[in-house]
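Bug #77: duplicate submission created two jobs. Keeping one. Sequence:
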Amino acid sequence: MPSFETGVRLLKNILIKKRSYSAFFADKTDALHKAFPAKATVHAGPFGIPMLWNSARNFLEKKSFEPRQTEGIAYVHIPFCESRCLFCMFYQNPYSPEAADAYTKTLIKEFELWNQRAAQNSAPIKALYFGGGTPTALEPHNIKKILDAVRKNLPLAEDCEITFEGRLHGLTDEKLSACVEGGVNRLSIGVQTFNTEIRKEMQRLDSPEYIIRRLEEISKIDNLAVVIDLLFGFPGQKGKVWTEDLKIASELPIDGVDCYQLNVFEKSPLNTRIKSGLCQPAATLSEAADMYAESVAHFSSHPNWHRLTNTHWARTPLERNLYNRLAKGPSDCLPFGCGAGGKLFGYSWMQERNLAKWSEMVEKGLKLCHDETSGTLAPHAHTGKQR
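Kept job's structure:
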């Protein structure tokens, strides 16, 4: 599989250097395998208009006093992980209790920055998503503080979908209780694969047996939608391994499954190992397409599952997948936290990813980084997938 960045460069070459719009039109002769020459975006959906930091800061400061015009959602980023998986490019900071305590205090201050401004309080928030990083790395007392601050400062709809994402490693009963008592009604767990060998190679920490048992336990919690992610395209996964992943997932008493493609990023540890010959190559785009088709065929033929989106499946009415669906449309998205992505009034941006700079920014009462050299407004990244 070529790196994700290789695909981006290929499409830029077609669009800019060759001045051709052919990349926007699908090849219908074999739509599954070669509809487009490459993949060039992590998440589908409309992007906002990019601006330089100084312009963005002034624009959003002014616009923050105007009422939102579309359905509202919110994204809260937790930029810590206890360990880094081989394939992940969302890793930002190592977790420590001290760093998490400090982050929680600053995050609460950020919730308060716009709580009297129309862009934040003018209309209900239909869905709220805690992504990362690994939100489930937080200790129960910080989970409780953050959720209390959210309810105090955000106009959550009565039926607001509140998602907490993470992994099963370290997800104690105390953390689960803090989530549920704080209003979380959807848990998104990054399983990725149930295969022992691939999990070890990708530096996933828990055994398949533990994952299955823990998912069965958590699924007994009333009114909590339990959803898992499965990744296809891992080295050594195509064929029987992927078939077994699908079989196990579809037989679990969970509420939803998201099957999505592995992206191999140039600077990821996985790409380094593949290039050095220490790891098998990931699936090609054509092989990944076949794996995707297999997931569609598998869940389509299963009597207990129904399709919500092109990659997402639900087993019970508890799973609405509301945030992910709204994030891929024109909805306004309020971002909170270091590295969070958001969108307002047709403009999108990503907040400062450097933890120290972000903290300094919030202390000054700003939603954007003060350093103009840090970058530009970026397309909204709705979740920290591939966690």
